[in-house]
Amino acid sequence: MQPDTLLVVGLLFLVLSIPAIVSAWTDGRAPRGAAIVLVWGAGMILYAMRIKEGGYRWSDIPDAVYTVIGQVVF
């Protein structure tokens, strides 16, 4: 997988895990599945940063997101 795709999918996993963690916490359940998705997303982001030459800067993230969206749509 390309580093941009890994970064965007990892960010998506992180964003989707937050409501699941909050929901499990308010229901009094352990957020096991959401925690696994959170760790998986963080791992994907770290791996993407590691395999991309020079890593990512904060200003590179929107460009990566738009690039991946463009690849999916077109």
Commentary on this structure:
The chain has 74 residues and is mainly alpha-helical. It has one domain. The chain is built from 3 helices and no strands. The chain crosses the membrane at residues 34-51. Keywords: Membrane, Transmembrane, Transmembrane helix.
Helix fraction, binned, reads: over 70%
* Total strands: 0
Largest sheet: none
Overall shape: it is elongated
The figure for the number of domains is 1
Strand content: under 5%
Spans of at least 5 consecutive residues with low confidence: none
Secondary-structure element pattern, one letter each: HHH
* SS content category: mainly alpha
Number of helices: 3
- Compute the gyration radius: what is it? 14 Å
What's the average pLDDT? 95
Termini Cα gap: 18 Å
Transmembrane segments: 34-51
Keywords: Membrane, Transmembrane, Transmembrane helix
Give a short overview.
By secondary structure, the protein is mainly alpha-helical. It has helices at residues 3-27, 32-51, 60-73.
Sequence-ordered SSE layout with sheet pairings:
Elements: H1 3-27, H2 32-51, H3 60-73
Transmembrane segments: 34-51
Keywords: Membrane, Transmembrane, Transmembrane helix
Essential attributes:
74 residues; mainly alpha; 3 helices; transmembrane helix; transmembrane; membrane
